Amino acid sequence: MAVKRLNTAVTTWVTLILTTFLLVACGSNGLGGGSVEVVKSPNDSRDYRYLQLDNGLKVLLISDPTTDKSAAALDVEVGSAQDPKDREGLAHFLEHMLFLGTDKYPKPEAYQAYISAHGGSHNAFTAFENTNYFFDVEPDYLPGALDRFSRFFVAPLFTEAYVEREKNAVYSEYKAKLKNEFRRGYDVFKQELNPEHPMAKFSVGDLKTLADRKTADGGEDKVRDDLLKFYAQHYSANVMTLAVLGRENLDQLEQMVRQRFAEVPSRKVPSNKIEQPLFAKGKLPGLLQIEPLRDVRSLSFAFAMPSQRDHYHSKPELFIGDVLGHEGEGSLLQYLKQQGLAEGLSAGSGMDYNGGALFNINVSLTAKGEQQWPLVAKAVYQTINGMRAEEVTKAAFEEQQRLMDIRFRFQEKRGAMSTVSSLAGLMQLYAPSDILAGSYLLDEFKPRRTAELLDYLRPEKALLTLTSKSAKTDKVTVLYDTPYSYQKIDAATLQSWQQAGTNQAITLPAKNQFIAEDFTLLNAKAAAQPPRLIGDDPRYQLWFGVDQEFRIPKGVLRATMKSESVQQSPAAVVKLLLLAAMTEESLNSYSYPAALAGLQFSVAASNRGLDLSVSGYTDKQSLLLGEVLDGLTADSYDEQRFADVKDELRRGWLNVAHQPPYRRLVSELNRSLLATNWSEQQLLAALGQIKLADVIHYRQQFLSRVNLEVFAYGNYTADQAEGYANMIADRLAVKPGARGELAVTELPEGKNWYRDVEVKHNDAAGLLYLQGRNDSYQERALMGVTAQLLKSPFYSSLRTEQQLGYIVYGAPKVTVKVPGLLLLVQSPSVSPSKIEVETVKFLQGFADRVAAEGVSAFERQRQALVSAVAKAPENLSEQAQIYWQQIELGNSAFDTREQLIKAIEGVQLDDWLAFYRQRFGGSIERSLWLQTKSQQAPLLQAKPIVDIDRFKSQQRQFHYR
């Protein structure tokens, strides 16, 4: 199925205009008494203060008394672009090393252990120009977390003993992504960049680029020495931005920050502007051909242009991306689909850095499009020519203003950690007053700027990339072993594109009919209530709930149609998948404008039936729902598109074998546990025989006997909800039938099992799944506490200390209601047998470790788990999803969270130790070990599963209606 998504420019750069809806938050800026007004959304209840410390560090404080988590992020304006040419990956290596001890907290696990023990998480990433560090934690423990966090930027140790270890971690990270298609394509792209441009460098690093080595004069060039030099040269307060969110008021947060970050040294580092051109003279126009590992087909265009950072009030590239990426009537994508050339398309600003930018267009090709890709390119250039002929109109600008004003006005709260990480990055781009609003601002109508940018989107200025299994290649990259070729576009082809003119079938987007106009809150005076069954109709059950927490003119409408017929065979599953895909395909002209207007819909096959959803602003939902129902009940669908959709499914299932090992094992675990879960091979076998007429016939059969359940939560009245339910039942002409059930395989008590999994990757991986004895709240609490206790030590032991691999985690695994524990390692250097040995060894010694740490440490971890379970939803969609999940599991009391918290709080250390020692401390039972293919059998005295379907049919099951 073609992916339905907004183009990059639209999703990344939204706008704001009507100043009547702006609010401001004022506070001291730390520069002698003035104030900076930080513009915020009227729907934002948080308080903000911008300030700058004496050392130049820019700070955004965020006070939110209701937050479940406090969080902080620090962004440094230094990334892989600043790597020395002879030390590629150094910025990334520094990011790894920074976590491993400081003057005040020298132990390498001090920061991670503190965050984990207090219900938090942490991470970091190294980008081209920035490195971003972030964490969240239970609100009471923000001061302690900030204290540890701040020392990274004041006095890190970069302990020599850990250098070799972290080099291996960086190398494992590189090896884990060797077969990642994006990394492989990016590696090829870099080969043809200007070698003097920083983007051409290897940003990850490996054992060679980070090795200690001899200098020309016989001296020592140690990577740690280069690391210290790099840190001293680039890590300066004046190029850092810090965002901190907590329950405390702004004055308390400011004091907290000043006490800890005033010591960050300022070295007056200048801004890193890149002067070199991205492409060397004479390189363009060019064509790259890449042979992928997976069966994918795409044609992409890359155009270098000036940075647009200073034009965030007018965002000229937004309009180019909007037209090129549009999917509605008269769009480029619709034309390409009608010609049988494309399956999907995205367009927008792909990268914008201090000194330049890239504009990208990516077209997913059909088999025909792969063969006739020059025609696809011609259509792209015809669309660009059409935009040159018609300058951006004031009406189009005002529609974008209207859309973005709506988005800003009704902006919903995001999680604490994602909020601070994002804002710390945006602080590097926008004026202090625009930190929150800058991504939404569109208050300058500058059509000539858009016209000027279009001049960079010419055939002679493009680097095209054709990715295809039939690509003609003559080179192989060193780092990612990717076959590719490069050639200049020949003069005849270039001339044909330059003279392509315009295409009358491709037009500018029409007026968007889905933009909301009425934002009335329909339940303004009603009491909040969880969903309840209303209505009296034998064709469906209707759940209706009133929101008073988020108070926005949005709603979530869902309808699920469950049938026993879905579980009868792989063919039934495939027909339902094709029905959902063809429905969405037939609605392609509506999906893009609806999404722009804040409306989403989906028609998706599940393991029990068909799920239909419409969400977003409620004003135009009835219009969109009508179109969706028309699409689902269409008399016929396009035969060519049906063939293309079948091909997409086929390639998707064939490509599963190329998933990273850890993902493949998790996927196979789900297949092992769910009683009716067909393999890709079974689905592929069924797919080949199915015709469009079979899908239409199955739709009639399916709808003739379904259990229809409708859910409406948000800005609806009860009458509206009932009207929607009747509309769905009437238009689909559903007849009541039995609902299918979910069944989870119960692993036999006292036994262990294993499966080998075929993976096309050099890394080995092993996954140990330990199943709970039942699905009671007590068992779920015990397994959950176990996961909370061991996740950080398991990571520290197998990844940090033993260096088994980059991907290491322990986590709870709940299947429907059945609790379990999952321990997973992917390694570039050791076998599945070694992973199993160390995993079991860790498990068997873990109870003594917890007992030695004592009651207070246990209770602290237990409370961290309670806080995680008790976390309130951040927005209306999350709340609706929580309610819907409980309806799906038959809990009309909606008290799952409360029951689970009660059970967790009842788990005492002695109870847990007795449970753990019985289940995991000695001989491990009721387990399933999944491993990438190995010559050695597991050590757990496990029995092999040769036929998973037969195995599941022979076991007892947990059943859920």
TrEMBL record:
Domain Coenzyme PQQ synthesis protein F-like C-terminal lobe residues, every copy: 786-884
The keyword Transmembrane helix is assigned to this record: no
Peptidase M16 C-terminal domain residues: 224-402
Family of this protein: Belongs to the peptidase M16 family.
PROSITE patterns, alphabetized: INSULINASE, PROKAR_LIPOPROTEIN
Cofactor: Zn(2+)
A molecular-function term among this protein's GO annotations: metalloendopeptidase activity
Taxonomic path: Bacteria, Pseudomonadati, Pseudomonadota, Gammaproteobacteria, Cellvibrionales
The entry's keywords: Hydrolase, Metal-binding, Metalloprotease, Protease, Zinc
Protein name per Swiss-Prot or TrEMBL: Protease 3
Any Pfam family hit: Peptidase_M16_M
Domain Peptidase M16 N-terminal: residue ranges: 58-177
Entry keyword Protease: yes
Enzyme Commission number, as recorded: 3.4.24.55
Task of the protein: Endopeptidase that degrades small peptides of less than 7 kDa, such as glucagon and insulin.
Stored SUPFAM superfamilies: LuxS/MPP-like metallohydrolase
A GO term from the CC aspect: cytoplasm
